[in-house]
Amino acid sequence: MNKTTLHVERPEPPQVRRGDLAPTNGYAIVVDGRFKTEFVDEGAATKAAAELLAKYPMLNIEVYNAASKSRTLVRIATSASQHA
After folding, report:
1. What pLDDT does residue 72 have?
2. How far apart are CA 18 and CA 36, in angstroms?
3. Does residue 67 belong to any structural domain of this protein?
4. Could you say which DSSP state residue 25 is in?
5. What is the reported pLDDT for 18?
6. For the chain, first and last CA: distance in Å?
7. Any residues with CB less than 8 A from the CB of 39 and at least 6 apart, and which?
8. Number of domains observed in the structure of the chain
9. Does residue 15 lie in a domain region?
10. Mean pLDDT for each consecutive 10-residue tract of the chain (84 residues)?
């Protein structure tokens, strides 16, 4: 008597992105020295970083530009600049 064999296809495990490796293109948010979310344009990255910093002001948040390999520190807007 032949036994039937059950073949289960396993999905590929998701590719884990390392937080210590810089992206090769676009922009990324850097939180306390770790690369987090990647963005296509600088405006979206800066906006997301500002929102994150407003929610968690104790964090050190930067926007990384992969083309120039530079980082820009994101600062909390002061109340004087918000009212101007």
Report:
1. 94
2. 9
3. yes
4. S
5. 75
6. 85
7. 26, 27, 28, 29, 45, 48
8. 1
9. no
10. 75 74 92 93 95 94 95 78 49
